[in-house]
Amino acid sequence: MQVLEKINVQLGMLFSEYTKKMEKMSIKYAILQIIILSHNIYRKNLIFIMKINKHTLIGFFLFAGLLSLQSQNYVATIRLDTNTILIGDQVNLRFLFSAKEAVSVLFPVYCDTCIQGIEILKRSGIDTVADENGYKLTQQFTITAFDSGEYIIPSIAFYSLDSILLAETEKLLLNVQTIAVDTTLAIKDIKEPLSAPITIRELLPYIAVALLLFGLIVGGIFLIRYLNNRKKPQLAEKQKPKIPAHILALQELEALWQKKLYQAGYIKQYYSELTDIVRIYIENRWNIAAMEMVSSEIITALSSENISTETIRKLEQVLFLSDMVKFAKSNPLADESSACYQHIVEFIQITKLENNE
């Protein structure tokens, strides 16, 4: 009985050892290894072999087969683009986990501190692809090393959400080499930094700023010339005319009436010329700067002259209506426009300077 227990203990150790190995073995090879080692154990204890129940042997081989099949359902691999690089070169490291059916797997977290001397420059997300063969989960890392030597990338384990080991990768060797230096040659000076060619994209901001400054300068020059050359509109000369002020004003009023401006719809132009005529007349008649005054200032200045209140009131109505047309876009009736013309004619006739004055 003690020998049988010893055999069971040895078989248990055998199962524990080869359960890990069967993840990387084919089914036939795993079973063959177990049979050979089991035969060695039984040969040493041949006298007790017949006492082992045949159902126990059948269960043993079924258990081993199931473990091997489970290991074939999940496969984990790790690959390098190349196993030999120069110091500072970059190489891609890929993790691949394959499963014949959908499974929730904890992808290993890989960081810079996992392998001393190897730095991770970039990492991709976990990409999942499903096809007729099952599911494939991949992740890529771009790594480098700045010290020469051999670096062992340890095996990476993949677990389920229940912390059950599903698959494990193999170890990889990364060989980082230095640049060969010919010590027989003479030592040379350090080369100066190479100047990189300037691209159009780098010049675009400077070109844009230069064009903007050029445009501002040219625009400023044209603006100054325009302001200097612009002629200020002068509707009438401020110097006293050779002919009397009322005669000149009446002539201009007649010319305005012949234009028929308000009849043709040019209301604003009509009132602007009408009030300019009376303003020039006031300047020439009383030496009042009416062209530079607002309507209320003109009325105030005329109040001190010997003019009747009714005459000033009619002039004030004309000036007010003219301001409404020019600034408030008022549109007086034809009768109102005609009446304003008559008021200005009457104002000039009443206030004209006689020869005996």
Molecular structure report:
It is a single chain. With 357 residues, the protein is an alpha+beta fold. 48% of the residues lie in helices and 18% in strands. The chain contains nine helices and eleven strands. It has helices spanning 2-21, 27-44, 54-73, 200-229, 245-259, 267-286, 295-303, 309-328, 334-351; strands at 74-80, 84-86, 90-99, 105-106, 118-123, 127-131, 134-145, 149-153, 157-160, 165-168, 172-177. Strands 1, 3, 5, 6 and 7 form a five-stranded antiparallel beta sheet that branches. A three-stranded mixed beta sheet has the order 2-11-8, with no helix packed on it. Strand 9 and strand 10 (165-168) form a beta hairpin. 15% of the residues are buried. Residues 22-29, 46-55 and 60-71 have low confidence and may be disordered.
- Give the structural class: alpha+beta
How many helix segments?
9
Order of helices and strands: HHHEEEEEEEEEEEHHHHHH
Q: How does the overall form come out from the CA principal axes?
A: elongated
Proportion of residues in β-strands: 15-25%
What's the N-to-C terminus distance? 161 Å
Number of strands: 11
Output the radius of gyration: 54 Å
Number of domains: 4
User: What's the rounded overall pLDDT mean?
Assistant: 79
Helix content: 40-55%
Largest sheet: 5 strands, antiparallel
Write the topology of this structure.
Elements: H1 2-21, H2 27-44, H3 54-73, E1 74-80, E2 84-86, E3 90-99, E4 105-106, E5 118-123, E6 127-131, E7 134-145, E8 149-153, E9 157-160, E10 165-168, E11 172-177, H4 200-229, H5 245-259, H6 267-286, H7 295-303, H8 309-328, H9 334-351
Parallel strand pairs: 2-11
Antiparallel strand pairs: 1-3, 3-7, 4-9, 5-7, 6-7, 8-11, 9-10
